[in-house]
Amino acid sequence: MSKVLSKYVIVGIVVVVVLASVVAYMSLPKTTTPQITHVRFLAGVSGGGGYQFGTALIKIWQERIPGVTFTLEATQGFIDNAKKMFAGVGELGVVPADEALKILSNTPPYNTSGYKLYSVFPLLPMTYFHVLVPADSPIKSFSDLNGKRVNILTRGSLTEQLAVQIFNVLGISIVPTYLTHTDAAIALSKGEIDAAATTTFASQYKELALTKKLRVLSLTDEEVNKLKNALPYLSFEVFDFGTQYEGCGKALVPISWTLVVARADLPEDFVYRLVKTVYENLGNISATYPAAKELTPELLLKAPLPLHPGVIKYYSERGIKVPDELRPKT
Questions:
Q1: Structure pTM?
Q2: Is 103 in the same domain as 135?
Q3: Which residue range forms the structural domain that includes residue 220?
């Protein structure tokens, strides 16, 4: 065979191989999942619980999920997060469940075109709305708060928002004050206010309980039924407040769910990977954010917001049944 002929044979073989490769590639099933390279996590106020939990989550994701940059962003708060994510700013964030439910139901101010939000994790510790009074106070129940001086934290806070809603439903008219935890603890100790409402186990009240015995008010079954009907995003639980405040006992209180949510357009496989990474590294996350040691997949099933499909995929893998009401509506 001549050198020229050999040359053409070799070229022909190369062409055939290349064409075969192209055909094989074109016949492969194609994925429609977009490549995620950057994720913004809207965390809320700098230093708050959402910010701290977000920091712990991003740390483990950054270590275990190569090729993706995670950015933690401080915002004006959890409601601000909901508004921004609805507008397409931020892929993950910490949002109150009632705001996310408003988005799903197109309730104002979310009655325009925007992104739906679905559950990924609960924010821990749980948001127990509770009202503290001195143990020797004549205030024994929620109804006894009528006409009393009750601190509901600073204006615009989650505590203020919940207090207004809860007291309105129960027909309780209070004299509100808007003190920080520090000032409220001092005022409560001096008798300058009658009660202090809070959604966190603030250290100021824990310290006060060491010198002045406190009591947490408990809802009646009738009050629970009223709140369930009017505020369906709330849950209710008997919690042992003695684990937080020295000398306190158990009380039946509302739980306001605050959740780490994902935008609906974040791919299922990607969210699945985020969730799987977290549950496989809870020990490391708890070292940074101790409250995460209470995190279990089943806990999210108590919250009122539907789960992101990526979460459902992980739960299915774990054999955890997700009720129909917590599946996104198509």
A1: 0.73
A2: no
A3: 130-256
pLDDT band at 23 (very low <50, low <70, confident <90, very high): very low
The pLDDT tens digits of the residues spanning 30-63 come to 334 468 999 999 998 888 788 999 999 999 999 9
In this structure, are 137 and 231 located in the same domain? Answer: yes
User: Within this chain, do residues 164 and 246 fall inside the same structural domain, yes or no?
Assistant: yes
Contact in structure between 178 and 153 (CB atoms under 8 Å): yes
Q: Which two tokens stand for residue 137?
A: 């106070």
For residues 2 and 171, the model is more confident at: 171
Peptide bond into 96 cis (omega under 30): no
Token representation of residue 294: 């209470």
Per the DSSP assignment, residues forming a β-bridge with 198 are: 130
N-term to C-term CA, the chain? 67
Last residue of a domain, one of 256, 274, 292: 256
Instruction: Write the CATH number for 248.
Output: 3.40.190.10
**pLDDT(232) > 90:** no
- Quote the CA–CA distance of 199 and 131 in Å, as a whole number: 9
In the structure encoding, which two tokens stand for residue 169, read together? 């439903």
Specify the pLDDT at position 154.
86
Cα angle 294, 238, 125 (rounded to 5 degrees) comes to: 30
